[in-house]
Amino acid sequence: GNDRGAAGRETGRETGGRAGGRAGRETGGREGSRGGEGRTLWLRECANVVGTTPNTLVCPFIAPKELQTMAETVVRTRNLVKSYGAVRALDGLDLLVERGCVAGLIGPVGAGKTTLVRILLGLLRPDRDSGPVYVLGANPRRDQLDLHRRIVYVPSQVSLWPKATIGETIDFLGRIRGDLAAPARDRLIERFALDPSRRAEVCSQVEHRNTILVVAFASRAELILLDQPPLHPDVVTTRAVVEELIRARSDGRTVLMASGLFGELEALCDTATLIRDGRDVANGPLPDLNSPATKKEAVDPTSPHLTLDALIHACDDGPYP
Predict the structure, then answer these.
(1) CB atoms near residue 284 (< 10 Å)
(2) What's the CA gap between 295 and 31, in Å, rounded?
(3) Is the separation of the CB atoms in 200 and 166 below 8 Å?
(4) Which stretches of the chain are assigned E, i.e. beta strand?
(5) What is the number of other CB atoms lying within 10 angstroms of the CB of residue 238?
(6) Can you spell out the DSSP letters for 46-78?
(7) pLDDT for 303
(8) Are 220 and 179 in contact (CB under 8 A)?
(9) pLDDT at residue 310, as a whole number
(10) Cys-Cys with 77: which of 11, 95, 110, 132 at CB 3.0–4.6 Å?
């Protein structure tokens, strides 16, 4: 059957007529049909695992268990390597962030936290010998435009357009994203004690960053990336950030926060990865990592120990020390 099918297809191509090609397809043996049916059935099984349809599978040659893991995983890196000349900022970093959690990335200055965040955003390309990087099941470089609709990023330093007001900036960024919820926008402006009519040039750095936080939390982004989260500037910002992180987690969104202080994230994160010199030295739930030996290995051991109650209630008299 296979031989007759191949001969028919070849005849159809050589003569240019449709009859030969049709004959080749119709008389091509049943083995090819069985293979096609088997692949369709396998794709349907994979679709049942990840809750989608065969036509929407991104990676049809990945085993079903791997597809299920990718569906539940928001960020995944394996042996991630990034060099700046002779300096390796990331040296074989492994990271796994599950959907619907608040995850911490903790390490001292120069550990590679910001480099990692920029790679996740698709702004930097890993080295050629690096392992894979997946964000929401996609490649950050190849699928950057699509991913940026599903991610929101708050950098450690923010500088707004000086002549624009706070309200104009929020509305402009909201139109760019296209997913800002108006009720959430209004609620967050009030929650962060911002004046929409104030121009950025007369606002403090805290107000600049709070403006971006309003955009981040009012959006429908599936992944929120916070570089050095502002948990210390003042009581209003601290309470607002804590409450919005809890709200985001309850909504099934994922938050990844990078910080150099263990205590700053300890009260908020479900899990954390401790990194030093571009390598992951420990990861897991925060209580499991809260030991003097682990802290000394990855972060500043003098980092203050904070609890959620402390974050919410202990700064009534002013900023945290």
Answers:
(1) 12
(2) 61
(3) yes
(4) 73-84, 87-98, 102-106, 133-135, 151-154, 223-227, 254-259, 271-276, 279-285
(5) 22
(6) HHHHHTS-GGG-S-TTS-HHHHHHHHHEEEEEE
(7) 45
(8) yes
(9) 41
(10) 95
**Residue 274: what residue type?**
L
Residues in the chain: 321
Estimate to the nearest angstrom the gap between the alpha carbon of 123 and the chain centroid: 13
Q: Which residue, 221, 230, 280, is CA-closest to 252?
A: 221
Token pair, residue 24, equals: 């080749």
Place of tokens 């051991």: 301
| End-to-end Cα, the chain, rounded Å | 81
Nearest to 89 by CA among 283, 276, 313: 276
Residue 211 token pair: 């403006």
Q: Which of helix, strand or coil describes residue 126?
A: coil
Sign of CA dihedral 228, 286, 289, 223: negative
CA 216 to chain centre: 13
Q: Which residue has the tokens 């470089």?
A: 141
pLDDT digits (tens, 9 = 90+) for 12-41: 555 555 554 454 444 444 444 444 444 444
- Helix 30-50 and helix 64-72, axial crossing angle in degrees, nearest 10: 30
CA distances from 208 to 77, 236, 300, 312 (A): 32, 14, 28, 22
User: Which of 191, 170, 171 lies closest to 243 in space, CA to CA?
Assistant: 191
- Rounded-to-integer distance, Cα 117 and Cα 97, Å: 13
Enumerate the H helices of 158-222 as residue ranges: 166-177, 182-191, 205-218
Query: Rounded mean pLDDT of 36-51?
Result: 41
Q: Does the CA dihedral 178-97-117-251 come out positive or negative?
A: positive
Residue 202: pLDDT band (50, 70, 90) is very high
pLDDT interval class at 45 (50, 70, 90): very low
- Tell me 318's DSSP state: S
Sequence-distant (≥ 6) Cβ neighbours of residue 294 within 8 angstroms: 274, 282
274 secondary structure, DSSP code: E
